[in-house]
Here is the input.
Amino acid sequence: MRLLVTGGAGFIGSNFVHQTVRERPDVRVTVLDALTYAGDRTSLAPVADAITLVEGSITDAPLVDRLVGESDLVVHFAAESHNDNSLNDPSPFVQTNVVGTFTLLEAVRKHGTRFHHISTDEVYGDLELDDPAKFTASTPYNPSSPYSSTKAGSDLLVRAWARSFGVQATISNCSNNYGPYQHIEKFIPRQITNLIDGVRPKLYGAGLNVRDWIHVEDHNAAVWSIIDKGRPGETYLIGADGEKNNLEVVRTLLEIFGRDAADFDHVTDRPGHDLRYAIDASTLRDELGWTPRYTDFRDGLEATVAWYRENEAWWRPAKAATEAKYAAVGQ
Ligand code: NAD
Ligand code: TDX
Here is the structure.
């Protein structure tokens, strides 16, 4: 099978490529990645000899057309992915997430190529802390930020291309991922690398916002079950019952680092900050037989801390600039 992975030099995409090379020797992988600030060639270094990396944008229609024409399957991870950045400058979010997805859809339509679209639970908006409901595939779309609204837009394009043009597409909406190779602008690796540097973790607002954490390996295993067994046209929600508020996550990290439970700072809250996400993944579990392997969050977090300790050369170059950007807005 010839597989095209967009965004394969980013966090989830690079882990997906590693997993695919490890577990699926019959798959020939090509990565299309623009190598933005969030993409890193070295994230693919361990598999560099087994794959082809093409540096380019998913908005480049002739390039996309050629690469899709040479593929049997496209798995589409490429995106601008950080909410805080989307509040400072939404423009690349519209270009990559909306126009880029449109460009890919036109190519898979032309070549009749199977397409899997990676999306987020943030398209559903947020839940109250005490709401017994979780997001399902029939929850109405209600995105809050420029990031989540452009992801919602891209999902709707995929649905329309599947229905109107018969494109063989599936969509997955996953909750918050953690694990190796995640950019240090994101919550967990930001606090891990702060703690390595002896800096106090930074909590937005009161820290009571809840995220439904899943290990990136579990997300990617779910993506493969959807590719193998999913029904074209369907949307699958991916989550591992990992709800935690941000304060709990910071306290667990402080414990892992042997620091005092009060050793953190409250900083300026994110405008429009979603309160809570929670995923009902029963379709994925019942229909496709997927189950998560990383069921102990603390164990997964300890392994992630160990990875950042051992791979300082990977994240150090981005640390000062990332923190300067946060400091400029009081975070
Ligand atoms: P990331 O920011 O770490 O990686 C994104 C990758 O896309 C980078 O390698 C970047 O260079 C590349 N890219 C950006 N613009 C591009 C363009 N125009 N053309 C080609 N490549 C481009 O993001 P991530 O956290 O790995 O997220 C991957 C996907 O998963 C995204 O679609 C995101 O919406 C989705 N998602 C992420 C999470 C999460 O918790 N991180 C949860 C659910 C869904
Ligand atoms: O320093 C911080 N302090 C803090 O309290 C940062 C960076 C974040 N936070 C909070 C904001 C959120 O409540 O932590 C939570 C997680 O923040 P992010 O890592 O920025 O993730 P989130 O905004 O929840 O979005 C993530 O999950 C869904 C990914 O970045 C998205 O790409 C994905 O779609």
Observations:
- The mean pLDDT is 98.
- Residues 81-83, 120, 122, 176, 186-187, 190, 202-204, 209, 211, 246, 270 surround thymidine-5'-diphospho-beta-D-xylose (ligand 2) (CB under 6 Å).
